[in-house]
Amino acid sequence: MALKLFGFSKHVIFSFIKITILLILNFMIKKADSGCNNSVITSITPIQHCEILTSLQSQSFDGHLSLQDNEYAAKDFGNIHHFPPLAVLHPKTVSDISRTIKHVFEKGSNSEMKVAARGHGHSLQGQAQAHQGLVIKMESLKGPEMKIQTGEFPYVDVSGGELWINILRETLDYGLAPKSWTDYLHLTVGGTLSNAGISGQAFKHGPQINNVFQLEVVTGKGEVVTCSENQNADLFHSVLGGLGQFGIITRARISLEPAPKMVKWIRVLYSDFSTFTRDQEYLISLKDTFDYIEGFVIINRTGILNSWRLSFDPKDPLQASQFSSDGKTFYCLEMAKYFKPDEAEVMNQGVDQLLSKLSYIQPTLFLSEVSYVEFLDRVHVSEMKLRAKGLWDVHHPWLNLLIPRSEIHDFAKQVFGNILKDTSNGPILIYPVNQTRWNSKTSLVTPEEDVFYLVAFLTSAIPFSSGENSLEYILNQNRRILDFCSHAKLNVKQYLAHYTTQEEWQTHFGSKWGAFVERKRAYDPLALLAPGHRIFQKEGSTSI
Ligand SMILES: Cc1cc2nc3c(=O)[nH]c(=O)nc-3n(C[C@H](O)[C@H](O)[C@H](O)COP(=O)(O)OP(=O)(O)OC[C@H]3O[C@@H](n4cnc5c(N)ncnc54)[C@H](O)[C@@H]3O)c2cc1C
Ligand SMILES: *[C@@H]1O[C@H](CO)[C@@H](O)[C@H](O)[C@H]1NC(C)=O
Ligand SMILES: *[C@@H]1O[C@H](CO)[C@@H](O)[C@H](O)[C@H]1NC(C)=O
User: Fold this and answer.
1) pLDDT for position 65
2) 367 CA distance to ligand 2 centroid (A)?
3) In contact, 130 and 115? CB cutoff 8 Å
4) Which numbered atom of ligand 1 lies nearest the CA of 396?
5) pLDDT at 35
6) pLDDT of residue 436
7) Measuring from atom 40 of ligand 1, which residue has the nearest CA?
8) Residues lining ligand 2, judged by CB closer than 6 Å?
9) Based on the domain organization, do 103 and 88 belong to the same domain?
10) Which H, E and C letters describe 48-93, residue by residue?
11) What's the CATH number where 355 sits?
């Protein structure tokens, strides 16, 4: 119950008490001469934070610094962690950001003031929050205007705070579009590039971090640096998948391709897991194959949140969800082929050919044709429906795992066959990728095998409920899944991971940990940036 109401773990509460005692002492000694009397400052505000804020307030910005009404910056899509900042910067220019960070850096060596870039706030566990620190609202950074370069290697230059949906709309005007996506487009460039950006195109093009030509970054020292494969390459690789630890992405140059107009969208069902994964692996191994390949698990599907992401073709409601799975487990393979309307015939032949090689349950072939935008923005349709029912702003205790191909059967047997009783709390995505052509120099951590599966438990908990729809129940289920992985010694990596100790992070990064720490020293030596991940905390003996 305490967990649900306050969103703090035991660990956090202990640190909190420790900090509070220290700070009250500090406060009693220094308040008189702090010059810090804003209403957001409380008795636990470290005195140095007040000083930094006061001097920041005297700076002139193209945008502005806000000390009031910042509660939203303590919220995210996960809706589990809530840590309010002291101030929010609404930058209009890159120099607003660099000036701010330089300022905190210069004052910073004896302060604990942290800075978090906030994209669209769709993190799951407070990753874009800065407790008693400063949040930079990246969506305010509108400039530079999106610039599209056509030609042999087309690209678009966008602000780090831009939403992917806006990039899609803008580039389509030139008949172009980015190659690699996330399932949901109302996320920012800086937010997804800090993680990876993995979706049904990643088997072909790699994740979004593989499709970037250049970045402009403000480091943890406040320096503005342009970087790419050829220029400041180490910073470039650090920042991609770097969890915001090395700098703030203010501009990205994203690779484009000619955009299709239409999408053939296909779903088929399997009852046998091995047949399902064999077909998925077959499809991603072909040169001439679908443009998008995903899949999901359906276990004894009943319950209120089923509609999430299962809506298919809004015009023709022939849906996989009509297929009842009472008491049974099914696996749905989801594929898409892009095309231009005048190429429909050739496309259909190609699709028939591919489908003829698959071993799904024959009567479960669901076909639909939608526009490219409808296809890419499909989750937004579910969002609107869930919002209307008050089921969007609920808790989202999501768990994302990357599982080596050699271990996926053991995993499925135990997790889908035993731990989970049904999928009524939200969809479980499952699809393979082959990472041989992914850039291995980025900060992203993946399992070591070429082929691994993304398994995403996209659960929602109903507020103030008990039993199987409650946050506690789902968190406990996540724990059982992770416990199984560690007892069975599966070489699983979490995606969008969240840990509370540096030891856990060290295990997560494995052989990449040393380089990660080195890069932190080089680009954010005071560990100012992205504190919500809890990788580099000042307290404790392992901090840098
Ligand atoms: C409905 C939904 C569907 C999703 N689907 C997918 C999916 O298909 N594939 C996938 O890979 N992910 C997916 N995600 C996860 C998503 O990529 C992450 O949650 C991402 O962090 C959200 O982006 P955001 O712009 O809201 O970032 P935020 O949550 O605001 O920030 C994320 C992290 O990046 C840092 N950050 C933000 N902006 C910048 C910047 N400009 N420079 C440096 N650091 C920055 C923040 O400090 C924070 O640590 C999904 C999330 C949701 C809610
Ligand atoms: C499937 O769900 C129904 C309704 O929640 C439940 O009564 C039934 O026991 C479940 N079946 C299995 C095999 O878990
Ligand atoms: C992964 O891709 C590489 C390069 O295309 C290929 O050689 C390899 O066989 C693939 N691995 C699997 C398991 O399909």
Assistant:
1) 97
2) 29
3) yes
4) 53
5) 39
6) 97
7) 190
8) 300, 302, 327, 421-422
9) yes
10) HHHHHHHHHHCCCCCCEEECCCCHHHHCCCCCCCCCCCCEEEECCC
11) 3.40.462.10
Report the predicted TM-score, pTM, of the whole model to 2 decimal places: 0.90
pLDDT digits (tens, 9 = 90+) for 134-173: 999 999 998 778 999 999 999 999 999 999 999 999 999 9
CA 127 to centroid of ligand 1, rounded, Å? 9
**Which amino acid residue places its CA nearest to atom 4 of ligand 2?**
302
Considering the domain architecture, whether residues 239 and 309 belong to the same structural domain is answered as no
Among 111, 139, 167, give the residue marking a domain's end: 139
SS3 156: strand
The residues of the chain scoring below 70 in pLDDT are: 1-44, 109-110, 302-326, 538-544
Give the mutation target among 301, 302, 306, 328 for probing the ligand 2 site: most ligand atoms within 8 A of CB.
302
For 5-61, how does the pLDDT look when each residue is reduced to its tens digit (9 = 90+)? 344 455 555 555 555 555 554 444 444 334 355 555 666 677 788 888 998 999 999
The Cα 43–Cα 47 span in angstroms is 10
pLDDT of residue 318: 39
98 plus 224 within the same structural domain:
no
Q: Whose structure tokens read 């030139």?
A: 174
Contact between 461 and 430 under an 8 Å Cβ cutoff? The reply is no
The string of DSSP letters for 259-285 reads: PPSEEEEEEEEES-HHHHHHHHHHHHH
Q: For atom 3 of ligand 3, which residue has the closest CA? A: 436
The confidence score (pLDDT) of residue 544 equals 42
Residue 144 is predicted with a pLDDT of 76
Q: Which domain holds residue 97?
A: 30-139
24 found inside a domain: no
Closest CA to 494 of 330, 53, 486, 100: 486
Nearest CA to ligand 2 atom 5: 302
Ligand 3 atom at minimal distance to the Cα of residue 434: 1
In-domain check, residue 504: no
Instruction: Report, as residue numbers or ranges, the catalytic residues.
Output: 122, 183, 294
- Best residue among 72, 90, 97, 118 to mutate for probing ligand 1's pocket (most ligand atoms within 8 Å of CB) is 118
Same domain, 252 and 116: no
The answer on 246 and 266 residing in a single domain is no
Task: Judge whether 482 lies within some domain.
Answer: yes
Q: Which of 240, 258, 276 is the last residue of a domain?
A: 258
Task: Give me the CATH number covering residue 40.
Answer: 3.30.43.10
Looking at the structure, tell me whether residues 153 and 127 fall in a common domain: no
Query: For residue 500, is it within any domain?
Result: no
The number of the ligand nearest the C-alpha atom of 120 reads 1
Q: How many angstroms separate the alpha carbon of residue 2 from the centre of ligand 1?
A: 27
* Ligand 1 closest atom vs CA 529: 47
Half-sphere exposure of 420 (CA within 13 A, CB side): 27
Q: What percent of the chain has pLDDT over 90?
A: 78
The pLDDT value given to residue 5 = 35
Residues 194 and 235 in one domain: yes
Same domain assignment for residues 408 and 376? yes
| Bond before 463 cis per omega within 30 degrees | no
In 10 A of CB 105, how many CB atoms?
20
Q: What is the pLDDT of residue 4?
A: 36
* Total domains in the fold of the chain: 3
| CATH number of the CATH domain containing 220 | 3.30.465.10
